[in-house]
């Protein structure tokens, strides 16, 4: 969920990606000191007792918050930029180990419709997503990661579509998807994958706009899963 000579199908990425955000600008959150603690990193596997920033937290934020017109894609409403770990720490009022004192947690649990994020009519975060963010903050809000990716699984339903859901639908869904490229169903994804655009953008190949837009590159494992799915025939499996 950065070069030149872009393909025609991708030119719109450069000229105003179309998601919008309708709430009034809020006051910027007070930046905190840079958090560099990465304890909990586990390149060999993922602990069920740990909330990982790269696997658990960032996909939620990318899908719901760090979109163009709100807090990503070149936009930072209220001075809040949610496109990377450091920008989240610096602008979203995250207080490690203390969700109750963290503005990021406060706005996603707000009951006032004029203050809650994501703003209506967008759907609020699910209880499960809120619990993940709360757990991550309680555990220190570290820039932690783990490897929990099986490159032997490259089916559309089991691997590719979940990757797209977590990293792409924040911009490429709804009535006005970014660059006019919707990615909400297999039939919408198929032509983009067949043209080479899907792999080229997520692999940050020359001639393609790197995706997720202004976000971190997908893991090598996720990129390889998409590539294997394409090489295997781009099936709806």
Task: Describe the 3D structure.
By secondary structure, this protein is mainly α. It has two domains: 32-138, no CATH class; 156-231, no CATH class. The chain is built from eight helices and no strands. Helix 1 packs across helix 4 and helix 5 crosses helix 8. The longest helix has 12 residues, at 53-64. The radius of gyration is 18 Å and the shape is globular. The chain starts with 52 loop residues before the first helix and ends in a 6-residue tail after the last helix.
List the helices and strands and how they pair.
Blueprint: H1 53-64, H2 85-91, H3 103-108, H4 127-138, H5 156-167, H6 186-194, H7 197-202, H8 220-231
Helix pairs in contact: 1-4, 5-8
Offer a quick outline of the entry.
The protein is an all-alpha fold. It folds into two domains: 32-138, no CATH class; 156-231, no CATH class.
How many beta-strand elements? Answer: 0
- Average pLDDT figure: 79
β-strand amount: under 5%
First and last CA, distance: 20 Å
Number of spatially distinct domains? 2
Shape: globular
Give the low-pLDDT segments: 1-39
H-E order: HHHHHHHH
The number of helices is: 8
Structural class by sheet pairing and helices: mainly alpha
Largest sheet, in brief, is: none
**Share of residues in helices:** 25-40%
Radius of gyration: 18 Å
């Amino acid at each position: 969920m950065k070069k030149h000579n872009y393909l025609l199908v991708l030119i719109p990425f450069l000229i105003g990606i179309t998601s919008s955000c309708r709430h009034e600008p809020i006051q910027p959150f007070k930046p905190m000191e840079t958090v560099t603690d990465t304890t909990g990193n586990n390149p060999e596997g993922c602990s069920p007792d740990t909330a990982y920033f790269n696997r658990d937290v960032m996909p939620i934020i990318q899908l719901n918050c760090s979109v163009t017109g709100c807090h990503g894609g070149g936009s930072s409403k209220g001075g809040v930029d949610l496109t990377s770990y450091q920008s989240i720490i610096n602008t979203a009022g995250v207080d490690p180990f203390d969700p109750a004192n963290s503005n990021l947690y406060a706005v996603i649990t707000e009951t006032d419709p004029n203050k809650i994020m994501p703003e209506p009519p967008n759907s609020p975060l699910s209880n499960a997503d809120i619990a993940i963010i709360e757990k991550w903050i309680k555990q220190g809000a570290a820039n932690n990661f783990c490897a929990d990716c099986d490159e032997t699984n490259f089916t559309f339903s089991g691997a590719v579509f979940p990757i797209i859901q977590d990293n792409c639908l924040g911009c490429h869904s709804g009535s006005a998807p970014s660059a006019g490229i919707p990615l909400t169903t297999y039939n919408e994804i198929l032509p983009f994958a067949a043209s080479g655009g899907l792999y080229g953008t997520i692999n940050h190949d020359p001639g393609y706009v790197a995706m997720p837009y202004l976000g971190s590159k997908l893991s090598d494992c996720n990129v390889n899963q998409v590539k294997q799915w394409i090489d295997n025939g781009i099936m709806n499996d």
